[in-house]
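Lecture 7 notes. Example A: sequence first, then its structure tokens.
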Amino acid sequence: MLSTKGYHNLAMTNESLHDPSLTPHGEEQCRTLSDRFPSHNKIDLIVTSPIRRCIYTSLLCFKPALKRGVRVVALPEIQETSDLPCDTGSDLETLSQEFKDQEAVDLTLVHEGWNSKEGKWLPTSDAIEARCREARRWLEARPEKEIVVVTHGGLLHYLTEDWTESGKFSGTGWENTEFRTYHFLNDNSGDASMTETTGSKKSRRGSERSLTKKERIELRETAKKNWEQHG
């Protein structure tokens, strides 16, 4: 699922804001999604980017699940793809202080340096692909069956390996608060690849034919080249 609208979305100049939170409209989007989300009772775990707008999206959208004791685990591997200030997370100490009263929020996987945008965390296609592969493997190994992932538009294409309509909006094919369902292929490739469920695809694209594996790879490479050329 893609997070709701943050202050950085209001104007390009706001991209200089460091780790901005949700706008009032973004909070309203959360309430709207919460009212129409059909599977609160099925959620076993919520996994979120440690970027503040994603944590708040998780807390506001899935209150019925939180009331049942479902945790919100922050996973650094699914952080934003760029190194703009608005896409750079806060230090662990800051996050720990801000969410200290939110018992559901689990920051144990967030370590100092996760927001450095260096080494493993570089904003390059190769580094992002490697992080997303690691995230998929971690998700696949989890004991929970139904996991909600709250993250960022560009990152979702790397995570799902689904680049369909990746240029539909600014940097992504996902709308704010859009949710889709995926399952793992269990193809023993080691990549923990996933595919969108038939019901999810049908609700978005009707009877449109799904891409073949070869077509998906070609689309991915084309999209990556366009993104790298245009920043």
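Example B, a different protein, same format:
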Amino acid sequence: MSSRLARSSTTASLRCLGQSQRTASRYQFRECRRAFADNRTPPDPPAQKRLPSSRKQQTPTAWSRIRYYSLLGFTIYLGYNMWTEPIEPVERNDASTIAERDDLQKRESGVTASSPMRLRMESFIKEEQSRIVDALNALDPATPFRTDTWSRPEGGGGTSCVLQDGAVFEKAGVNTSVVYGTLPRPAIEKMRVNHKALDPSVEQLAFFAAGLSLVLHPRNPHAPTVHLNYRYFETDTDDGTPHAWWFGGGTDLTPSYLYDDDAIHFHRTVKDACDKHDRDYYPRFKRWCDDYFSVKHRAESRGVGGIFFDDLDDSDKDPENLFAFVQDCLRAFLPSYLPILRRRMDTPFSDAEKDWQQLRRGRYVEFNLVHDRGTSFGLNTPGARVESILMSLPLTAKWQYMHEPVKGSREERMVKVLKEPVDWV
């Protein structure tokens, strides 16, 4: 009887174990184990709840089978394609414009000798602006330069450094500008006169321009006004590769009273910078300067000249050589001008001499507003900063009806030289 009870208990325990597995109830399984240990009959598992009639399993219909096998086939097809088709690398382009890509490159790797020319020119003119401003501030320390940094929504920007009403300078401006923009078709057609590589069939072209412009108007009429501008321009394809490019620039001296040794020193220093690269540059660019800085409606030059060039591209020399030439010319500015300024800035002067300076400045204004291509281009560029463009104008000027210099005077000699340019070196 004991063995029969044991067999009965074992059978019941196994039956209970199977039931507990089918119902997946840990609680019921524990109860079965306790009953087996106590040699008693385990409790029956509770009856499973009946599902509502709405949730009863339904026999699959033909339509549900079609949907199931269609989805299964599509899933297999998609998985096969994902496994066998090569994955094309996705080129990351966080910046959508040339200006944004250039900013990213400057932040990540800086500007090096292998950087695009536009970034190298931008870096160079900013360095020279700081060096020139420091040197001028040392001559007029009581009146600091006002520095304004500005940006353009289209890309780029600049820094304008302007001093007004100083002891040495009545007005002095040293500006850098970096411009990203788009040339409309009329501008492209105009530029094709000197750059045949430009495509005349396109409606617009992306362009980049960077330059340093400087104009100094000393207070003393015996100290000459001086102008300088060096610039780089390129049109670009969508990926930022230059389509066409060129350098331009120059510097010229505009005295109210002529001192031959000043003119000779200025021209000789500029000529030395040119001769380092090409001995034909100085005579060629000196003539170009005399022709360009001409107040045509007055039939006289703006000053005693210097050098001027534009549109220097690969038809002249490669970009590296031309960039080196521009660098040497810009670095020659302080040696060409500061010795003149130091000699003349404390020279005594009369009211009549100051009036003559104001009349000559009037001629300066006429040229800049009527004939200067740089002023015209700047004012017609969308988003242009007008204050920076007109920085070149003197703080004061004068126009006097039918003024004629006294015969045999220094003023008359000045006018004769302006009507017949001189070869100073």
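Note on Example B: The longest helix spans residues 62-84. Strands lie at 146-151, 156-164, 169-184, 204-218, 225-236, 242-254, 294-295, 300-301, 305-312.
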